[in-house]
Amino acid sequence: MKCSLCNEGLFIPLENHIEIYCRTEAYTMCMQYSLSSEFYRPSLAENTAAPRDNRRRHIRMEDRQRVTLVQLNRSETVASHVSTPARTIDLSLGGLRLQTAEPLVNDTVIRFSFDDLAPDFPLAGTATVKWCHRLIDSPEYQAGLAFSNEQTAEAMGMYLGTRHFLR
User: Fold this and answer.
1) Beta partners for 86?
2) Cβ-contact 80, 109 below 8 angstroms
3) Domain membership of residue 132 as a residue range
4) Do the domain assignments include residue 101?
5) How many Å apart are CA 115 and CA 14, to the nearest integer?
6) Beta-carbon contacts of residue 166 (< 8 Å; ≥ 6 apart)
């Protein structure tokens, strides 16, 4: 069986990929299928918060995941080889809110990766710290991060779609 998503030779699946995804009912978990499927592409209209409800452009979905943060330079090269563990509080197509023991500096570019999702759904991307506040009666911090590029937003949309948040 040949993957119907590689008609122009852009994606050539390996044999183990074909056995796991292409020839089974797990095809919906294939990243290539998800990227080309209208089912997993939430329309902006369906995922836009009403302006009178809040200032957010996208609806936030509660989701607790362990993530690792690494600070980047403006050129998006690693600024510090020290990683910071964090946990997400909520996610959207535009960014995420997380909690961490370390303060994050506003306007810092961060590379994040979801620890528990790989290898099934490797989710990573870049985001800019928009705000960071220390929690009351806690030594931890909450921070809001906005995605830095469209690829990160698309990957988050696919993740939220597979989690059935955006249906």
Assistant:
1) 67, 100
2) no
3) 61-162
4) yes
5) 25
6) 42, 46, 47, 61, 157, 160
Q: Is 158 helix (H, G, I), strand (E, B) or coil?
A: helix
Q: How far apart are CA 9 and CA 165, in angstroms?
A: 32
Closest CA to 67 of 46, 98, 94: 98
Two structure tokens written together for 160: 């939220």
CATH number for 108: 2.40.10.220
Q: How far apart are CA 67 and CA 90, in angstroms?
A: 12
Opening angle at CA 104, ends 98 and 105, nearest 5: 135
pTM (predicted TM-score): 0.63
Query: Which tens digit of pLDDT belongs to each residue from 28-42?
Result: 666 666 555 544 444
DSSP, collapsed to helix, strand or coil, labels residue 78 as strand
